[in-house]
Design a protein that fits this description.
InterPro entries: F-box_dom-containing, FBD, LRR_dom_sf, LRR_FXL15/At3g58940/PEG3-like. The chain is an alpha/beta fold. The protein is built from 8 helices and 17 strands.
Length: about 375
């Protein structure tokens, strides 16, 4: 469409005039810097919108607020491979007062975005495989789910994830120690794995996903502090990330000296550990979990493809980590991964489906 900008503008204007409610608008083939017609911003009747492979128009001079809201009825928005500035994301959030579901995926450009989550009706946000500098939940009183996967900065520094006003946040993940700098109120989890203030936590989170490179010493050292920020987690999903070479091993003594972790000791009823490779740091974590989790009822261990020759081999490895007679208190299910090597973290549609109580389970195999 790069050769026909006027025709594209007329098409978009025609859709606006017809008061379309659901729209998928994808620029194929590229160029990926094709400017999205600004006429779309007048589509006040839209309720669902999917945009892919466009450069979003500059919104800095457009009116904001009240009757000037660009998308007053928009409830679901997905941006895929979009070239969009932080200010334009702010515009979309503030000018979509009915927005409940936001998805950002495959935004890989040199400049990371700063995503500020504001919305009185916002219930679910998903950010996947995108260049981001920070994700800040500023004021989202209805936010229930925050999905993160594969987010990176351009220069390899921490991605700041700050949880502000989100009293209904029930599901969060996959957080990555070593990649995400987690801030909750005045608490900051730093590189050493400690916090400046752990009195402020997120007690409403019941389902937590963590992506941990157990072969990276500093990532594992941050794990206890991450877990302490969510004292009431009932379901814990762990995805074990592969590393080309290990930078140190942390044994059971590390976890014992880390001290009690409230969520593990008294609240976690279900644990799903995916992409288990059988390494010593993974084994130490699982052994600590099995020894100290007093209310754990269900454990699922999924062996990584290529790490084990058979399911019996995975079973034998896990049996060395569990206390004697422990199986009478907890049901343990062991399998081998049948999906892609490294595992899959998300399915956009499952995350938006609130009839699925735990969307992370949707990807377990």
């Amino acid at each position: 469409m790069g050769a026909y900008p006027r025709r594209l503008q007329r098409w978009v204007q025609m859709l606006v005039d017809k008061e379309v409610q659901e729209l998928v608008l994808v620029n194929r083939p590229w160029p990926r810097d094709m400017l999205l017609p600004a006429e779309l911003l007048a589509a006040a009747t839209l309720t669902r919108l999917f945009l892919g492979f466009w450069k979003f128009p500059d919104t800095s001079t457009l009116p904001r607020g009240g009757a000037a809201a660009a998308f007053p009825n928009l409830r679901e928005l997905v941006l895929s491979s979009m070239d969009i500035e932080s200010r334009d994301l702010d515009f979309l959030l503030t000018e979509s007062p009915a927005l409940e579901k936001l998805g950002i995926q495959s935004r890989i450009y040199n400049k990371g975005i700063r995503l500020r989550l504001v919305g009185q009706r916002l219930r679910c946000v998903q950010v996947h495989v995108s260049a981001v500098e920070s994700i800040t939940v500023v004021d989202a009183p209805c936010l229930e789910r925050l999905f993160l996967s594969g987010s990176r900065t351009h220069d390899g520094s921490f991605v700041r994830v700050k949880i502000g006003n989100a009293p209904k946040l029930r599901l969060l993940g996959y957080l990555e120690p070593g990649t995400h700098m987690l801030e909750i109120g005045n608490s900051v989890i730093n590189f050493a794995g400690t916090s400046s203030n752990l009195r402020t936590m997120a007690p409403n989170v019941k389902i937590l996903g963590l992506y941990v490179r157990f072969g990276v010493h500093n990532d594992v050292k941050m794990l206890p502090a991450f877990l302490r920020c969510f004292p009431n987690v009932e379901t814990l999903h762990i995805m074990s990330g592969k590393t080309e070479e290990t930078t140190g091993k942390l044994n059971l003594k590390f976890w014992q000296e880390a001290g009690p972790i409230e969520s593990i000791r008294s609240h976690i009823k279900t644990m799903i550990f995916r992409e288990f490779q059988g390494g010593p740091s993974e084994a130490a974590f699982l052994k600590f979990m099995f020894q100290t989790a007093q209310v754990l009822k269900n454990a699922v261990i999924v062996g990584a493809k290529g790490s084990f020759t058979s399911i019996p081999e995975v079973i034998r490895k896990v049996q060395t980590l569990t206390p004697e007679n422990w199986g009478s208190n907890c049901s343990v299910h062991i399998s081998k991964s049948s999906g892609l090597v490294g595992g899959e973290l998300f399915c956009l549609r499952a995350g938006f489906e609130f009839s699925i109580s735990d969307p992370f389970r949707y990807y377990d195999s």
